[in-house]
Amino acid sequence: MKFCVEWLQELSGLQQPAEELARALTRIGLAVDTIEGEGEDVVFDVEVPSNRADCLGYRGVARELCAALGGRLQALDVEVPPKAGDGPPPVVIEITDPSLCMRYSARCLKGVRAGTSPDWMARRLERSGVRPLNTIVDITNYVMLETGQPLHAFDQSHLRDNRLSVREARKGEKLITLDGTERHLGSDHLIIADARQPVALAGLMGGLDSEINNDTQEIVIESARFAPLAVRRTARALGMRTEGSQRFERGTDPGGTLQAADRAATLMARLASAQVDPRAVDLYPAPGELRRLSLRHGRVKALLGMAIPLDQMRSILERLEFRVLCAGPSHLEVEVPSFRSDVECEEDLVEEVARHHGYDLIPSTLPEARDSSDKVPETTRGQVPILLSSLHAHGFTEGICTVFVKSNLNHLWMDGSDHSVRLVNPLSETGDELRCSLLPGLVAATRRNLNHGAPGVALYETGVVFRTSDADAKPNEENRLALVMAGTPSLGTWNRGASGADLFDVKGALEEGLERAGWPSLETRPAEVAWLRSGRTAQLLCGERPIGWLGALHPETAAALDVDAETMTAEISLTELERVPASPHRYRPLPRTPPVIRDLALVMPRQQEFAEVAEAIRKLDSRIVHVEPFDRYESKKLGPNHISLALRVTFHHPERTLVSEEVQEMEDQILSQLHERFKIRLRGA
Amino acid sequence: METDAEQIRSEFESELLRTANSQALKDLRNRYLSRKNGRLSLALRGLSKLPAAKRPHAGQALNQARQRIETLLAERQQDLETHESSQQQSGDPLDLTLPGRRLLIGQAHPLTQVRHQVESVFRELGYRIETGPEIETDFHNFEALNMPEGHPARDLQDTFFTEGGYLLRTHTSPVQVRTMMSRKPPIRMVAIGRVFRRDSDISHSPMFHQVEGLAVDERVTFADLKGTIAAFCQRVFSPDTKIRLRPSYFPFVEPGAEFDISCALCSGSGCPTCKRSGWIEMGGAGMVHPAVFRAVGYDPGTVSGFAFGLGIDRIAMLKLGINDIRLLFENDLRFLRQFPQ
Ligand SMILES: [Zn+2]
User: Fold this and answer.
1) What residues 386-405 of chain A have any CB closer than 8 A to a CB of chain B?
2) CATH 3.30.930.10 in chain A, residues?
3) For A404, which of A313, A430, A513, B98 could close a Cys bridge (C-beta 3.0–4.6 Å)?
4) What is the second-level CATH architecture of the domain A92-283?
């Protein structure tokens, strides 16, 4: 809220320069964000904490300044005729439910001549961010700024039967508000009605009909204490927010309504030559008692870690207009002023004392080092960081994508067994659902990078994806890891060019990561899923547990995400993976004897899976310790049904050096086995 | 067989190009010409399996291949010898101004790097890292934190709701609630993670990251809170970082505070980054409100605690000098690679 400094100075009697006042305000919790203007025009923008309704008024802030710097808050200038005569009230007020409106005060005036406000008032309004309109409206705004109590002025001649009632609207009722909008009302809305129909939205905005204009002669000033929740509900239901509603929602001072009405009447008498009706109307069906709290010296010390002398605490509270009812040797009994509805418990008093004593004066210590009460391992530790650092070594860079996805893209990754999670109130620029896979985000990031001219992209992300099996149940959160690779992501250099990536680059990064982290070797099983290309898809397993999918993006998926390049992906569930036990690496004795390596150039039926062949070879003899492919190609000469596969087989005996005869024997065994089982033959044979 | 000879020769030639020294060349010779296992020798032996009519032709093709291979080997041998001896004799003919060969190494996102640093600072201070769900209940996100239905502070945290009546957590504080509900004091915990608010502009992303510390014990004080924030900020930023606490309001703490760090760019004299104040707003803090203790089943009469929270994105932006939060979530490799680990 904007505060003009000259007005604060007048109310507090403090003449310190603006900078000094700003520092003081910031120190006690009313942060001054900006100081603008010069001389008379200096304006503070103060960040008023959302629980401090009293500081949405000049007097509240001036009170704080006085407490901080030793000023004396000026009394409110009120001059109304003494109560005279018992005749009927000039306006009849009715409160249907005191829980919606705690108090309703009103003043009536006659012979009003609305004109233009004097310069001093117009300037103060303008500096505070309020546009001057006419004397009457300006005075209601001025008093709201001064006291924090929102006021409304009705043109009394438009109130039927001189009656006002505070009630919930009935279905079908309508009101055209000051801004010219027709509002359709219902029981969600708290309104003020005359004998026949609504005339104002309580605490929010008046009706056009009873608006003050230059012909207005009779006025009713409304100064009420509406329930914060009632105003909030009305404001939300209508999507409105006004200077008044903001203050009511925070809880205005029930003790100050009549005074604020009188203050406005005083100014109207002076500036609009109005005659104030001596019969004030003040409905206060159930005035509550002021809250009483005790503040123990020991509690202050225990919370702050610093003792503050009792008399100092007392002095701070009294300067803030708390009444000290009783001062014991180690505690104070305090009555909370009606404008401080935010002070509800002893800790709130501790804060009052601490902030005016000065947070700066509280020492700086560290809490005792203590072991946690139990020793459950942290969930963020474990194997995953090892897996990720291995991905870095393979050239993958981490991305962090938004969890919001457009539903049509999200659904590309749904497989029918469960549902995606919809937002009730998405933002237009985000998607309307929560991601059920990390891939939509990563693939979009890949596309953007390729569009920027990146020759290739290798990205990964870890994060939660959301799915639900039952619309009412809390959605499932699964932690995942996804990898995306496209183009030529490796670095080329002079006389050693970069090579294009394929699915085996993605698979290799994962294999290496899992093994380094101590997990069992990655296994694959041919599979089909909707978002991946047929024949280029595998299910990934670790320790026989399915953990995810490896594959090239399906052309339709790629088209939906607008990527041209062949896009390789893998996505695994870390939640599942972490259920697979990882074993720590342990020393294996180094071989004392040399291995023997033989290369076999084979011609193999195209359909044959490598893994099966390798497994068959290894099982033949315990001295066959390793089988790996080192070349694989297709050629016209081999025909469409065969491929050439070159295998490197490592033979080793832990105790002795193998002689060539026994290696040859094993090699022959391999070849005959391969031929028998898989119709694989040696190339050239 | 003819094609086989062709095949062997062409494979040899491509392998030859990759031999960089005499040893590699020797190995290559063995693989192709060794009497026992050389590919050519094997192929020649295989001739006997061919029909007699085809043998001479195939044999000729293989012999031609052999001659070609031997010639090429000899040429390459000479090249390598000249090259190697010239290298040894004349010292260093390499043009070392040529760039070195590098591997492309990936990296963690700058936010993750900051997160790791924050985690390790907290571990040093004796805190445990705790996690919680990103979709929360109203109870954990608001009610238990002294923000009952209708509380105005809920408006400041504009919330995304999912079908079924759940919400995306608006802060990491529900992890406090979950931790306190599942464990007994003493507690020293920190939660780091994604949070969501319906807000989007240059300084607000609908998704951002927070870190939040909580200590609960028999005698934890506001002074401890100040000391802990100072220790944290000095380790994360720099040892001469100063901190300032200002009274402020958060429903779940009392007394409450906002904390600022001294501006490292201008050393406190005022610059555009710190809005000329010398201080940069970092986060919120305070003593755990008794209503929160009651909500999680602790007795506010016997325990006290402090909590403080701040934005990881904000720390990263300050440390790395970024002014638009959205850069952090665009995953532009040109941006990410500016911050190798
Ligand atoms: Zn600065």
Assistant:
1) 388, 391-404
2) 383-577
3) A430
4) 3-Layer(bba) Sandwich (3.50)
